[in-house]
Give the backbone structure.
Amino acid sequence: MDFSLTEEQQMIRRMCREFAEEYIAPRAEEMDRTGGYPYDIIARMGELGMMGIPFPEEYGGSGGDWVSMHLCIEEISRVDAALGALLDVTTSVVAQELYVFGTEDQKRRWLVPMAKGQEIGAFGLTEPEAGSDAGATRTTAVLDGDQWVINGAKQFITNIGLENASIIITTARCKRANGKDVINTFIVPKGTPGFSVGKKYDKLGWMSSATNEVVFEDCRIPRDCLLGEEGKGLAQHLAVLDTGRISIGAVSVGLAQACFEAALKYARERQQFGRPIYDFQAVSFKIADMAMHIELARNMYLKAAWLKDKGLSHVLEAAYAKLFASEMAERVASDALQIHGGYGYMNEYPVSRYYKGAKLLQIVEGTSEIQRLVIARNL
C-alpha cells in the first residue's frame, strides 16, 4: 500500500494552501460577519482551475483526479468552510452530474464554463416536504410539445443566489404515458421566465455562502434540458451525492484542522498557574485527540476519493468519511473553543466562527442519521 501523494497532488495542495492563506484568510472573518459574497476570490479560484480539477481538458478541466480535488477542498475549507462548500456543490455535484449524465451539447454548453470557473452551479433536491426523504419530491414537470413546464419550489439551495450562478440542476416528478410517476432531472438556466430566486436564508453561520429558496411557476424549458435518462433523475442525483459526501468529509477535515492549529497555538501561549496551559494534561490530551481524529478522518476521505478515481465502489466509504469527519469536526470545534475559555466565545477569535460553522456539516449532503442508514443498508 502506498499512502504517498503524487508530485502533482502535492503541488495542488500546496497551491491551494498558499492561495487560501494569501487571499482568503485576511477577509474570512469579515465575510462571515457581513455576509458579503467574495466574487473576486471565486473568480480567482476559477482562474487557478480549482473548479475543474477532475475533468478532462476538453471540457474545461485540468485532467486531474478526485484525490486532488478533495485536497483542494480541504485546504480552502481550512480558511473558509463556506468556500469549500461552494466547490463541493459546483464541482463534486453539479459539474459531475453534467459530466456523467449530460449529452455532448449539454457538456459543451454548461460544463465547460463551470469547469473553468466562469460560472457556478446549484443543486435542487430539498423541498419543504422532501428533505431526507428525497423521493417525496412534489415539484412537477409536464411535457407540453417541445417544452417542459415546471411548477414547485426548492429550499436551502446553495450558490443560486450568486450573480455568477448559471443553472440549477433540479429534480421534478413526471407522469409517463402509462400513468406511472417517475422523477427526472432538469437543467434550468437562471433567468428562465417562471424561475425565481426566493428569500435569502438568515443562517447561524456560513454567512458568505449564498443560500436561497427557488420557485418554479409555469417555468418553461426546452425539451433537451432533460438531464440523463428519463425516470432515473433521483438515482442520478443520489449517485453524485456520494461524491458530495466525500467533499463534506474534506470540508470537515479542513475546518477541524483550523480548530486544531488555533487551539495548539493558544495553549502554548496562554499562561495559567505560572505555565502554559498546554502543560496541563486536561488540555494536552484534548489536543492529542484532535490530531488523531483529524488524521483518521483525512485518511478516510482520501481512501473514498482514491476508490472513486479507480472506478471502484465507494458508497460505504463516502458515508463513513462524511459521518465520521462531520461529527469529528463538531467535537474538535467544541474542544477548541473550550481550550480558549471565555476568549473562545468572543467573535474576535476565529474559533467562534469555526464553532458556528461546524454543526451544519452533520446536516448537508445527508444528515448523520441518513449516513448511518446508508451504512446499515450496505453492510
